[in-house]
Automatic annotation (TrEMBL):
GO molecular function: acetyl-CoA C-acyltransferase activity
Name the UniProt record assigns to this protein: Thiolase C-terminal domain-containing protein
Pfam family, one: Thiolase_C_1
InterPro entries: Thiolase, Thiolase-like, Thiolase_C_2
Species of origin: Cupriavidus yeoncheonensis
Domain Thiolase C-terminal: 263-387
Length: 405
């Protein structure tokens, strides 16, 4: 099946992020959603009234647990959509809803969909602010196999994956991962919305304290409060709204992917090995055609494995690929051009997945300001969600976006 360039994104919104501590005044999840939606609608030149009888997509927020939350979001926004889309695929949610919205539009059920997401993980009044409240933390394999041994949170879980990677591919050097982190912070220094903008050096990366060996402090994504949104319409409608539509040219999705044996999967390969080739084939692009790459980059080595599984280099050669290229926005391989989540901030695990998509659209519209990639026409954007036991990711979605159909 193909839906190449039958839909386009016509507006995006990203609120300012906050590092507010529990007890400090901060917008609620609903307020962040309304804020982000307003920004996206204004860029699209649409009013919320134009979404009555259309579509609304809502990404699950791990903090804001309420009954019938998607319908409540429609109520809070003051719209009456015909279709409610919902995604609970963690950092793959924004990408998943773009695919679902495209299918709805192609089927003629709706013409446009407003997709929103926000979270306020720092508002949790607990001993560990920001600790996600996802099911893995309360039941199932997490407490069977990880919690009893002190594997608390993403850093500890991903440390196990990186340890295995280092065992299989001992040529990887931490300086190579550090270069990615340093480049990401450099890009963030040109983005007013990034939560951390002060550049750091490779030596500072190497000297940062170890949190969960081999994960360092400067390997870790900073948790923030915030909201993001985008508007997707039929390609026909998009051309009437803007002279800068960003078309969905190709996509691929892999959920619950196992590489090799299900009993003993290879955790160094993600579902991108399956979803990326599909996205590129549908989009009619080769690796050399991609002008910027926006991974889900909560940790540098996740971005590195993503590069490998997209086929930019062979498995085990991601470190050398990083070492040999300039990852800054003006370099020969622009990556995480907004600072990514590593320096930009992660507004909850699920909502951080909006960032690669929003930045890709911003770059392709030529609206990235000082960090603009020259002549950007094709972007690769990634969604990555969930940390299952014994595998590196539960949902891996690959998108190809372009300025032309």
């Amino acid at each position: 099946m193909t839906m190449r360039s039958e839909v386009a994104i016509v507006g995006v919104g990203r609120t300012p992020y906050s590092r507010a501590k529990p007890g400090e005044p901060a917008p609620t999840v609903d307020e962040y959603i309304a804020w982000a939606a307003d920004l996206a609608l204004k860029q699209a030149g649409l009013s919320k009234k134009e979404f009555d009888g259309q579509g609304l997509g809502v990404a699950h927020a791990e903090v804001a647990h309420t009954v019938n939350w998607s319908a409540a979001t429609a109520e809070n926004l003051g719209i009456s959509p015909q279709v409610l889309l919902r995604a609970d695929q963690g950092g793959a949610s924004a990408s998943a809803m773009l695919i679902r919205a495209a299918a709805m539009i192609k089927a003629g059920i709706v013409d446009r969909v407003l997709v929103v997401g926000a979270d306020t993980p720092l508002n949790i009044p607990s001993a560990a602010p920001g600790l996600p409240l996802s099911p893995e933390r309360t039941r199932g394999v997490y407490w069977d196999f990880q919690g009893p041994f002190g594997v608390m949170g993403a850093s500890a879980q991903f440390a196990l994956v990186l340890t295995r990677y280092l065992h299989q591919f001992p040529s990887l050097r931490f300086e190579q991962l550090g270069k990615l982190a340093v480049s990401t912070r450099y890009n963030a220094s040109f983005h007013p919305g990034a939560i951390y903008r002060k550049p750091f050096t490779l030596d500072e990366y190497m000297d940062s304290r170890m949190l969960s060996h081999p994960i360092r402090l400067l390997d870790c994504v900073p948790i923030v409060n915030g909201g993001l949104a985008y508007v997707v319409t039929s390609a026909e409608t998009a051309r009437t709204l803007t002279d800068k539509p960003v078309f969905l040219r190709g996509f691929g999705e892999a959920n619950n992917y196992y590489h090799g044996s299900r009993a003993l999967p290879d955790v160094t390969t993600t579902g991108y090995a399956q979803s990326a080739p599909r996205a590129m084939a549908m989009g009619g692009v080769r690796h050399a055609d991609i002008d910027l790459f926006q991974p889900y980059d909560d940790y540098p080595f996740i971005a590195m494995m993503t590069l490998e599984d997209w086929g930019f280099c062979k498995k085990g050669e991601g470190g050398r690929f990083i070492e040999e290229r300039d990852l800054r926005f003006h370099g020969d391989f622009p990556l995480s051009t907004d600072g990514g989540q590593l320096s930009g901030g992660q507004p909850g695990g699920a909502i951080g997945g909006f960032m690669p998509l929003v930045e890709s659209v911003t770059q392709l519209r030529g609206e990235a300001g000082e960090r603009q990639v020259k002549n950007a026409r094709i972007a690769a954007s990634c969604g990555f969600g969930g940390i299952p036991y014994g595998r590196p990711g539960r949902s891996c979605i690959s998108l190809i976006l372009g300025t032309e159909p």
